[in-house]
Design a protein that fits this description.
The protein contains ten helices and 42 strands. The protein is of the alpha/beta class. The protein folds into two domains: 237 residues, Spore Coat Polysaccharide Biosynthesis Protein SpsA, Chain A, CATH 3.90.550.10; 219 residues, UDP N-Acetylglucosamine Acyltransferase, domain 1 (3 Solenoid), CATH 2.160.10. It has a twelve-stranded mixed beta sheet with strand order 12-15-18-21-24-27-30-33-36-39-41-42, with helices on one face. Strands 14-17-20-23-26-29-32-35-38 form a nine-stranded parallel beta sheet, with no helix packed on it. α2 links the parallel β4 and β5. The longest helix is centred in the middle third of the chain and has 21 residues. The mean pLDDT is 94.
C-alpha cells in the first residue's frame, strides 16, 4: 500500500511493575511488539518505523530477528517483508513528542501515515486495512480508530459535536465528570496525511495534567483549520485494547491462546482439555495427534500426524515426526524425534538431541546433544551426553556417559548392536565397537574392539563374542 506505518514502542510501561520494557513482554510465545509488527506487515507498507526509547537496543534486536525469520519463510515467494527502521525518543514527553521524532524520516513526501501503539498486540491487519480504506474513501485529513467499552477507565474519550462528528479527544486524567461517562474511547490508532500531521505537531503544547505532548491534540489542531477528522468505530473492543498491566496481559494471552487451540482442533488435532493446554502461536501440529491435559508446547515446535503428547509434557522448539509417543511429564527442548520414537515418562531431551526411527528413551533418562540410532533403547535411569549411538543398541539401567573432565566435554561413540550393561560408566572420549557388550558396573576408560565382552573397573576385554 502507499502507506507508511509508525509504531510507538519507547515506553517502559510502569504499570507492568517490571524492569523489562513493556513491548518485550511475551504473548503466546512472542514479544508484544512482534504481534503489532506482523499486523502492520499485513498491509505491505512502504516503511515501518519504530519509535524506541527504554531498552532500545533490545527492542531493535527482537524486531530485526523477527524480520529475518519472516524473510526466511517468504524466500520461496521471492518476497521480503518491509524491514523495521528505528528512531530514538531519548526523553519520553508523550505520544505527540514520539511522533515528532520521526519527522526527518516521514515528512519528506505525502505518503499517509498510520500510527500504532506497540502495546496493542491483538490488532489485526484486516482492521487496519479497513481503517485506511475508510480514511481514503472519506478523503479526510485524519482518522482515529475508536471503540465502545463497558469500563472506559484510563482511556481517552471521543468527544463528538452536535452533528455526531469528531470534536476532540480528552484524556482520562483531564476529563470532567460528564466526559468520564462517555464509553467511546480512543484506541491510540490513527491515520494521518503526513504534511498535515507534522504541521499540526508544531502547534500543540504540553498544557495538560501530564505535562506531555498529546498526539490527540493534533486531531484538534487539524480540525481547527477546517480540515476533516473522521472517527472509524470498531465493533470489537477486545482487539484494540492496550496492555498496561499483568492482568491485561493474562487476559490477552487467554484470548489469543483460545483462538490458537480452536484453530488446531478444526484442523484435526484432539485436545483432551483445551482449558489446561498451552500452545504457542507458531506451533504446528498434524492431524490425528492427541494432546493430553497440562501440556506446554512452546516456540516453533512442529509435531507430525498421529502423535500422542501425554499429560505434563513440555516441548520447546523441537521437531517431532509422525507417530511419536511422548509419555507423561517429559521435557524436550531443541531436539528432533523421527517417526515412531517413544520418550518418557519423566525423560529429558535437550541441546540438539536427535532420535532416529523407532528409538526409545525411557523413564528418568536424560539425553543431551546426542544422536540415538534406529531401534536403540535406553529404558531406565541413564545419562547420555555428547554421544553418538548406533542402531539396535540396548543401554542398561544406570548407564552414564562421563563426558566432562573438568575442563572440556568429550564424545562417546557406541556402534551398532552393542549391549551396555547396567551401571556402566563410559569415560569419554571412548568408543565401543560394533556387536560388543559391557558387564554390569563396568567403568570403560579405553576403546572396546568389535564383538568383545568388557568387564571390570577399569573394564578390560575378557573375550571375543561369537557373531550371531
Amino acid at each position: 500500500m502507499d502507506l507508511n506505518i509508525l509504531i510507538m514502542a519507547a515506553g517502559l510501561g510502569t504499570r507492568m511493575k517490571s524492569q523489562k520494557a513493556k513491548v518485550l513482554h511475551k504473548l503466546v510465545g512472542q514479544p508484544l511488539i512482534n504481534h503489532v509488527y506482523q499486523a502492520a506487515l499485513g498491509l505491505s507498507p512502504k516503511r515501518v518505523v519504530f519509535i524506541v526509547g527504554h531498552q532500545a537496543s533490545d527492542v531493535e534486536q527482537v524486531l530485526k530477528h523477527f524480520h529475518n525469520k519472516l524473510s526466511k519463510k517468504e524466500e520461496h515467494n521471492n518476497s521480503r517483508p518491509t524491514p523495521p527502521e528505528f528512531v530514538s525518543q531519548i526523553e519520553q514527553k508523550g505520544t505527540g513528542h514520539a511522533v515528532m521524532m520521526a519527522k526527518e524520516l516521514l515528512a519528506k513526501d505525502s505518503t499517509p501515515i498510520l500510527v500504532l501503539s506497540g502495546d496493542v498486540p491483538l490488532i489485526t491487519s484486516n482492521t487496519l486495512k479497513s481503517l485506511f480504506s475508510n480514511h481514503k474513501e472519506l478523503n479526510v485529513t485524519a482518522t482515529v480508530l475508536s471503540t465502545k467499552v463497558a469500563n472506559p477507565a484510563g482511556y481517552g474519550r471521543i468527544i463528538r459535536n452536535e452533528e455526531n462528528n469528531f470534536s476532540h479527544i480528552v484524556e482520562h486524567r483531564d476529563a470532567n465528570a460528564k466526559e468520564l461517562e462517555i464509553d467511546e474511547i480512543n484506541s491510540g490508532i490513527y491515520c494521518f496525511e503526513s504534511q498535515a500531521l507534522f504541521s499540526a505537531l508544531e502547534r500543540i503544547s504540553p498544557n495538560n495534567a501530564q505535562g506531555e505532548y498529546y498526539l490527540t491534540d493534533v486531531l484538534s489542531a487539524i480540525s481547527s483549520q477546517n480540515k476533516k477528522v473522521a472517527v472509524y468505530q470498531h465493533m470489537n473492543p477486545e482487539e484494540v485494547l492496550g496492555i498496561n498491566n499483568r492482568i491485561e496481559l493474562a487476559s490477552a494471552e487467554h484470548r489469543m491462546r483460545t483462538t490458537k487451540l480452536e484453530s488446531l482442533m478444526l484442523e484435526g488435532v484432539t485436545l483432551i482439555d483445551p482449558a489446561s493446554t498451552f500452545i504457542d502461536l507458531d506451533v504446528k501440529i498434524g492431524m490425528d495427534t492427541v494432546i493430553y491435559p497440562n501440556t506446554i508446547i512452546e516456540g516453533e515446535t512442529t509435531i507430525g500426524a498421529n502423535c500422542t503428547i501425554s499429560t505434563g509434557a513440555h516441548l520447546i522448539n523441537s521437531h517431532l515426526a509422525n507417530n511419536v509417543f511422548i509419555r507423561d511429564y517429559s521435557l524436550i527442548a531443541d531436539s528432533f524425534l523421527a517417526d515412531q520414537t517413544t520418550v518418557g515418562p519423566f525423560a529429558h531431551l535437550r541441546m540438539g538431541t536427535h532420535l532416529e526411527n523407532g528409538s526409545t528413551i525411557g523413564n528418568f533418562v536424560e539425553v543431551k546433544k546426542s544422536r540415538i540410532g534406529q531401534h536403540t533403547k535406553a529404558m531406565h535411569l541413564s545419562y547420555l551426553g555428547d554421544a553418538t549411538i548406533g542402531a539396535s543398541v540396548n543401554i542398561g539401567a544406570g548407564t552414564i556417559t562421563c563426558n566432562y573432565d573438568g575442563k572440556n566435554k568429550h564424545a562417546t561413540i557406541i556402534d551398532d548392536n552393542v549391549k551396555i550393561g547396567s551401571d556402566t560408566m563410559l569415560v569419554a572420549p571412548v568408543r565401543v565397537g560394533q556387536g560388543s557388550m559391557t558387564g554390569a558396573g563396568s567403568v570403560v576408560t579405553k576403546d572396546i574392539p568389535e564383538n568383545s565382552l568388557a568387564i571390570g573397573i577399569p573394564a578390560i576385554v575378557k573375550r571375543t563374542l561369537t557373531k550371531t
